[in-house]
Design brief:
17% strand; 6 strands; 118 residues; single chain; 4-stranded parallel β-sheet
Length: 118
Amino acid sequence: MNKFNKKTLVISGFPGIGKSHFFRKNKDKVVLDSDSSKFSWIEKGIRHPDFPNNYIKYIKENLAYINPLGVGKADIILVSSHKNVRDALVENDIPFTLVYPSRDIKEEYLQRYKDRGE
């Protein structure tokens, strides 16, 4: 398959699962680290009224199979795992893989959040 007919993999990842790390480390593929906060807030404390539709629009613009020319801008799009985002992906027939941690490592994730200032 040539680069002009590629499919885009959408990964919905739980916070702290490693989306940003994956984005920084993978230079051999075009990866978009699509932080939903850039779409869900107009400014601090003011939600964007069109979220998650504006986020879904951005995702669609980067999918190979939706683009009429069949040219995707990304190999992989990393997206939020918020329920309203997952529901919007399903409603828009956008296939995705959900990645989340095992409950057995809850304490490890709580520490990750502390380590990154959350």
